[in-house]
């Protein structure tokens, strides 16, 4: 049987999106506006005066709802060393009390197996056709999820979309509630302030722009069946946004995050905004009550322990310093006065690298 090319599938999917766009407009109901909040003491849903949460979405006490952890990755050294640290901490936290963490998959969108296949459970998918990402490699993420969801056997009902630069600080429970996925609210994702652009992809007939949550696709815990519906739309909206010069310029490196938020809204999916889902040093100072460290920002300090963000510090940890290979073992700890979140990050990186074999050769 002849093999269908990835390009044909992308074009076919795009065609389907445009053909059904009006149908989506007619069939997706406008949802109520409001905010879902969470009692951080036990992660119970509360409702604000606008939205009343149906009782049937509450999780029964002591009921375990495991979720599958999935992250997309490339075969570049920069991606590999982050994936190894991430998987190390997943294994350390998975079976501890309070965890509902299930299986794990690294979705490798380089198209070919690499040397981490035996160390980390990996599912190989195709990258976008050459040139389609226009140098924005993150566009491969939704396409990778579309392929994985279609071809892989996934036992868990829920999925956590994660990233290589995530470290599990403590066991993670399932923060989703039925058809309400859980997501981290990013301060720089601002649909309301960018309404003019959002309306290109989320027309007024769908409802208020506040239906578009201030989130990206990660971290998100979501029902598998919901993600199967959202993922193709997410891919198509990402490509359309990249193809629009104004959107591409304004959204920049977070374009694919906006695309996930818009795609979810097009399908009438509302996320519970979980502020304690994740922290991002150096801006978040403590790890208490948080579940994931996201080390996307560089951490620069002088020897007095003062942040020098935007200027290379006398002490620094920045993942981008290690684009061509892994950081060395036993990184120096920050000077006194540096926030606990940064100290914890470096200690966790050091523990992982000390225990992972062949660290300097990967």
Automatic annotation (TrEMBL):
InterPro entries: HPAT-like, HPAT/SRGT1-like. The keyword Transmembrane helix applies. Residues 67-360 form the Hydroxyproline O-arabinosyltransferase-like domain. One of its GO terms (molecular function) is glycosyltransferase activity. The keyword rRNA processing does not apply. It is a single-pass membrane protein. It holds the Pfam family HPAT. GO terms for cellular component: membrane. It is found in: Membrane. This is Hydroxyproline O-arabinosyltransferase-like domain-containing protein.
């Amino acid at each position: 049987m002849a093999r269908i090319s990835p390009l044909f599938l992308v074009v076919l999917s795009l065609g389907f999106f445009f053909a059904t766009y009006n149908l989506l407009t007619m069939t997706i109901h406008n949802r109520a506006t409001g905010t879902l909040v969470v009692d951080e003491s036990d992660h119970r849903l509360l409702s604000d005066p606008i939205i009343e949460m149906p009782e049937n979405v509450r999780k029964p006490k002591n009921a375990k709802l495991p979720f599958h952890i999935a992250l997309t990755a490339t075969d570049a050294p920069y991606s590999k060393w982050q994936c190894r640290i991430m998987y190390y901490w997943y294994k350390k936290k998975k079976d501890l009390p309070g965890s509902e963490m299930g299986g794990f998959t690294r979705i490798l969108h380089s198209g070919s197996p690499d040397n981490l296949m035996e160390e980390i459970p990996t599912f190989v998918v195709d990258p976008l056709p050459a040139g389609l990402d226009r140098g924005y490699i993150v566009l491969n993420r939704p396409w990778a999820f579309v392929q994985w969801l279609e071809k892989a056997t996934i036992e868990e009902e829920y999925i956590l979309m994660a990233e290589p630069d995530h470290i599990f600080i403590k066991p993670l429970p399932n923060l989703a509630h039925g058809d309400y996925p859980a997501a981290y609210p990013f301060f720089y994702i601002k649909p309301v302030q960018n309404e003019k652009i959002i309306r290109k992809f989320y027309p007024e007939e769908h409802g208020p722009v506040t239906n578009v949550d201030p989130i990206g696709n990660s971290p998100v815990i979501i029902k598998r069946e919901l993600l199967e519906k959202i993922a193709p739309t997410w891919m198509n909206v990402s490509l359309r946004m990249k193809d629009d010069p104004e959107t591409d310029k304004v959204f920049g490196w977070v374009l694919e995050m906006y695309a996930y938020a818009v795609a979810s809204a097009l399908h009438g999916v509302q996320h519970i905004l979980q502020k304690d889902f994740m922290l991002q040093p150096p801006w978040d100072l403590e790890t208490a009550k948080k579940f994931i460290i996201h080390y996307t920002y560089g951490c620069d300090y002088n020897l007095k322990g003062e942040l020098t963000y935007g200027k290379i510090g006398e002490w620094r940890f920045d993942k981008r310093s290690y684009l061509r290979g892994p950081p060395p073992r036993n990184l120096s700890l920050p000077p006194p006065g540096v926030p606990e979140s940064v100290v914890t990050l470096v200690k966790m990186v050091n523990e992982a690298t000390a225990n992972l074999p062949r660290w300097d050769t990967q």
